[in-house]
Design a protein that fits this description.
- Helix content is 65%, strand content 10%.
- The chain contains six helices and two strands; from the N terminus they run ααααββαα.
- The protein has a two-stranded antiparallel ribbon.
Length: 150
């Protein structure tokens, strides 16, 4: 009898590699800012989730603080994010998206969503809904299992 876990593990590995390749194949229009995947993930979190401390951002995107700090510095140099004092603790700072950051995020998000729509064009609404349900469940299981922090 085949072990479903073996095939799930194999498919998970294939997905990770192909998702990286898929993201890398996306082309930003010439007037747009081409973001590395890590920078896009961080800008996405900041633009959609609102200003946050570096430590909260690191937790949210599952990266170490030094990596997030470096990426925030690059985003800040590009004018996509800015820092402001945390009103609840004047010793801390919040990182928030600038108007330009929101625009760049929106353009990149639209490109990503368009590519996903093309990729899933032959899936039925029911298939997309079921995949969404199962993929969300997998992500939630990973988050609550403690595996995410290793």
């Amino acid at each position: 009898m085949p072990d479903d876990h073996v095939e799930i593990g194999r498919q998970f590995g294939i997905f990770l590699r192909r998702a990286d390749r898929f993201y890398a194949s996306l082309r930003v229009p010439p007037d747009g800012l081409d973001l590395e995947r890590g920078a896009y993930i961080l800008l996405s979190r900041i633009a959609s989730g609102g200003p946050a401390r570096l430590s909260a951002l690191a937790d949210d995107v599952c990266l170490d603080l030094s990596t997030v700090s470096r990426q925030v510095g690059a985003l800040e140099s590009a004018g996509l994010v800015g820092r402001s004092p945390d009103p609840t603790d004047k010793r801390a700072v919040l990182v928030g998206a600038t108007a330009s950051g929101h625009e760049v995020f929106a353009r990149n998000r639209d490109l990503w969503l368009s590519a996903l729509r093309d990729l899933l064009a032959d899936w039925t609404a029911e298939e997309r809904a079921e995949f969404t349900r199962l993929f969300t469940r997998l992500n939630e299981t990973i988050a609550t299992s403690g595996q995410e922090k290793r």
